[in-house]
Specification:
Blueprint (H helix, E strand, L loop, with lengths): L1 H11 L4 H20 L1 H18 L2 H27 L5 H33 L6 H17 L4 H26 L6 H77 L8 H31 L8 E4 H18 L3 E6 L5 E4 L1 H18 L5 E9 L2 E8 L9 H4 L20 H11 L3 E7 L3 E9 L3
Parallel strand pairs: 2-4
Antiparallel strand pairs: 1-3, 4-5, 5-7, 6-7
Length: 457
């Protein structure tokens, strides 16, 4: 009753969800291990009972065979119920734990009684190898596989230890030999073995507890990460609804004003309107980049893969980028043979990658610098490269280059603008094409970014 009261006190305060989840996991782990080892136990019991029936009393062997079969059937049924149950309440947990302890008590008594019966049939002038082997094996088996609940393991080991000690103690009580007798040596040896079993049980219990706590910690961190992802998704959905639509209207209004559709623009306003229009475009691009990252994180980016000539794509992109390069006093140099460079890709997305690389190169180039765009074929790969003669990238910055919202020039009042999303988005696009993106750089000399895509045959 004291043991049951202890468990009742333990689980009566387990309304905490984390406690309930921990005990539920222990129950399911215990049941899974028990069901998995069923055939192993059956084979061991059948062999032991067969040997005792052949060499000792057949009727006693059959009697214990029936008892073992009954409790194994009971345990199998209980394990099945535990594994199949989906919803656990404190009362269900209490009932399951009590049943496990009752099953442990009954099975341990049956195995111990069977082993002691064999020892008694052997008589006092015997080494009792078979019953001692059965009890020691059962103890080690329990230490290895019943460590999910300390009380279950303790209950089983207490019964086995009592039985193991009873056999040599009974022989000593009947024979009453001198201390020099081997019967005393048997007792001392058994005590030594029991110490080993106890240490084994402690190690398995400690190891399982550490593993369970580590798993719970990982699941807790997973929940936090999932909540953060959901918050990010809601935020970006708000960005899409509350910012993207108004920005589109504002940009359209500025375009109409700057084009003179509403009449001549006063000269004093031209510069301000130009700055406002340019910043509106930058803000719209940032919103579009954020939405792309959101869709990429949840796997909702759709790609239209088709046969694409990279030569034509490069020419079109460079032509569109030329006005921006001219405005920044940067020359564009295209090194591309008059040949066809076929790949299987999404034209819109690969063009986005190239424009990101061109914008990045222009941003970090020196005044009056040169950006070189090259296309070349290397075995079965098409290699697109964008090289600038700018400030370069410091060694050891490889992981930061493609990180989101990171710029290597991240100090306050940094010289180079941008959100730090272009290269991260480019990497996601290229990887979705099963390609490779990277860079080579020398500080103070320049940087070359390259994209490698499989050639289309």
């Amino acid at each position: 009753m004291g043991l049951l009261n202890m468990f009742r006190g333990r689980f009566s305060i387990s309304n905490n969800a984390a406690d309930l989840l921990t005990v539920e996991r222990r129950l399911k782990d215990y049941a899974n291990v028990g069901r998995h080892l069923l055939m192993q136990r059956v084979v061991i019991y059948l062999l032991a009972i067969t040997l005792s029936g052949v060499y000792y009393d057949l009727d006693i062997a059959i009697f214990f065979l029936i008892l073992i079969a009954m409790y194994e059937a009971f345990d199998t049924y209980v394990f099945h119920l535990i594994i199949q149950r989906k919803t656990w309440r404190p009362r269900n947990i209490w009932n399951a734990v009590v049943i496990l302890h009752i099953g442990t008590l009954v099975s341990s008594i049956i195995i111990s009684a069977f082993s002691i019966s064999i020892a008694l049939q052997q008589g006092v002038n015997n080494s009792h190898f078979l019953p001692m082997f059965m009890l020691v094996s059962a103890s080690i088996f329990a230490a290895m596989n019943n460590h999910h609940f300390l009380s279950v393991l303790a209950l089983r080991l207490i019964i086995y230890v009592f039985s193991i000690l009873f056999i040599p103690a009974y022989d000593l009580w009947v024979v009453q030999p001198p201390l020099s007798s081997e019967l005393w040596l048997n007792l001392f040896t058994i005590i030594f073995v029991l110490g080993f079993i106890m240490e084994l049980g402690r190690n398995f219990l400690a190891g399982y507890t550490r593993t369970l706590r580590a798993r719970e910690k990982l699941e807790k961190e997973h929940k936090i990460t999932k909540a953060a992802l959901e918050a990010k998704t809601r935020f970006l959905a708000t960005v899409n609804h509350e910012l993207r639509t108004p920005l589109t209207s504002i940009k359209g209004a500025f375009d109409l004003i700057n084009a003179g559709s509403l009449g001549p623009v006063p000269q004093k306003m031209e510069r301000l309107l130009e700055i406002a229009s340019r910043n509106t475009c930058r803000l719209k691009e940032l919103v579009d980049d954020l939405l792309f990252l959101q869709a990429s994180d949840i796997g909702k980016i759709k790609f239209n893969f088709q046969k694409l000539d990279m030569h034509d794509l490069v020419e079109e992109a460079v032509e569109r980028f030329q006005p921006h390069a001219t405005q920044m006093n940067i020359a564009l140099n295209v090194q591309c043979a008059a040949d066809e460079f076929w790949v299987c890709a999404d034209k819109k997305r690969i063009d986005q990658v190239l424009m990101n690389l061109l914008s990045n190169a222009a941003k970090f180039s020196k005044p009056n610098g040169t950006i070189t765009v090259a296309l070349e074929e290397n075995a079965d790969l098409i290699r697109l490269s964008v090289r600038d003669d700018g400030i370069g990238i410091q060694d050891g910055s490889e992981e930061l280059v493609f990180a989101e919202f990171i710029q290597l020039d991240s100090r306050d009042g940094r010289e180079y603008g941008g959100s730090g999303l272009g290269l991260s988005i480019s990497k996601k696009i290229v990887e979705a094409h099963q390609g490779n993106i990277g860079f080579n750089s020398e500080l103070g000399v320049g940087t070359e970014f390259f994209v490698e895509l499989e050639r289309y045959h």
